[in-house]
Amino acid sequence: MTNIGNEVKSMNTRVVHGCKGYDPQTGAISIPIYQSATFRHPGLYQSTGYDYSRLQNPTREELENTIAALENGRYGLAFSTGMAAVSAVVHLFSPGDHIIVSDDLYGGTYRLFEEIYSKYGLEFSYVDTSNPDEIIKALKVNSKAFFIETPSNPMMKVADIRAISKLAKERGMLHIVDNTFLTPYYQRPLELGADIVLHSGTKYLGGHNDTLAGLVVVNDDILSEKLKFTQKSEGAVLAPFDSWLILRGIKTLAVRMERQQQNAIQIANWLKTQKNVLKVFYVGLPEHEGYEISKAQASGFGAMISFYVRDKTLVEQVLERVKVIIFAESLGGVESLITYPAVQTHAAIPEEIRNKLGVTDTLLRLSVGIEDVNDLLADLEQSLA
Ligand SMILES: *Cc1c(COP(=O)(O)O)cnc(C)c1O
Questions:
Q1: Could you identify the atom of ligand 1 that is nearest to the CA of residue 85?
Q2: First to last CA, the chain
Q3: Out of 85, 243, 265, 367, which could bridge 79 as a Cys pair, Cβ 3.0 to 4.6 Å?
Q4: Which residue's alpha carbon is nearest to atom 8 within ligand 1?
Q5: Measured between alpha carbons, how far is 104 from 127 in angstroms, rounded to an integer?
């Protein structure tokens, strides 16, 4: 399925070359944008392999094969957004099925589960998936899957992917991992036993805050067939141009992730020394509760940091004063972004639950970009002073 992917082991090389590495027809180094809705049939009962772009498109196909190769999986699927990818995965289940979900997760996923799919008879339990006892306690006879984020959003809790995959296998359940925060560059859940990996490609994979995308990777033939069926039937496919933008983003994934992580480590350590910062959540700090598990299942810690400031007035001050860092939702791009989860990404989660999780009105989340770290530190210093 992959040209480069199978032969070259290094991620640094694999991200640059993707699956095919070039367009076999013309030699173009950049895979062309096949901006065509439909494809001419050579004759009756004949197909070039492409019939209609909702079913398959050569540009999207290269992205799908590339993400599959990077996650070390067999099948990739590209959707119009991360939420469309999550939604397609939920279609694998039937009314009456129960899914155990990380309690600290992307607010949009929570909203999709609670406001839409629970109406159709699916049941969701939200538990701290970094705590094995809580996972066991949540199991029911109708439990069909685990849906986890690790590190979680925004509290950066780390779940043990191997342990949950093992439990899922024993119980005939599926293990679904949202791998948006670490990307296959740092973490490959399928290699650790998970069944389904998904991404908001909008974030690190695209990397430039210019495109929305969702990606899913699986190994199993039947899961792949079912997901492809949903993809073509519902039609939330990624457009050719957007597929090309994500492919282009992936080429620099390795250098971006390295630089972003390097900046994040410095910033997390600096934040710890600030009198106006009460607590820092970054997986790469050795005192982080999930540090050891993280080292055992991922080759890096990523570049997402959350922190509590002393009081709510400081939140307003920081969001008003930042100049280099941009006050905006989203994460993973080259630009550093600061978010106020309680009112932005996690507004869909009821206040009582948010406070229990720690997503309070003094929590800020920072997605560290690739800028000069000294400029980022100076910006944080003047805004926190
Ligand atoms: C952004 C995000 C999503 C949703 O993706 P969209 O591309 O915005 O639809 C899902 N999961 C995580 C962890 C995210 O950060």
A1: 9
A2: 54
A3: 85
A4: 82
A5: 8
**Average pLDDT over the chain, rounded to an integer:** 96
Q: Where in the chain is the domain with CATH 3.90.1150.10?
A: 253-384
The answer to whether the CB of 203 is under 6 A from ligand 1 is yes
Atom of ligand 1 nearest to the CA of 153: 13
Q: Is 317 helix (H, G, I), strand (E, B) or coil?
A: helix
CATH 3.40.640.10 in the chain: give the residue spans. Answer: 4-251
Give the position, in ligand 1's atom list, of the atom nearest the Cα of 86: 10
Tens digit of each residue's pLDDT (9 = 90 or more) over 278-299: 999 999 999 999 999 999 999 9
User: Which residue(s) pair with 124 in the sheet?
Assistant: 99
The answer to whether residues 185 and 300 touch, using CB atoms and an 8 Å cutoff, is yes
- The answer to which of 5-19, 74-88, 245-259 has the lowest mean pLDDT is 5-19
Could you tell me the two tokens for 337?
Answer: 């972004």
Protein residue with its CA nearest to atom 5 in ligand 1: 82
Fold of 253-384: Aspartate Aminotransferase, domain 1 (3.90.1150)
Average pLDDT over residues 35-46: 97
Per-residue pLDDT reduced to its tens digit, 299-336: 999 999 999 999 999 999 999 999 999 999 999 999 99
Tell which one of 103, 152, 200, 246 to mutate to probe ligand 1, the residue whose CB is within 8 A of the most ligand atoms. 200
pLDDT above 90 as % of the chain: 94
Strand order in the sheet with 143-149: 75-79, 214-218, 196-200, 174-178, 143-149, 98-102, 123-127
d(CA 209, CA 224): 29
CATH of domain 4-251: 3.40.640.10
pLDDT score for 4: 52
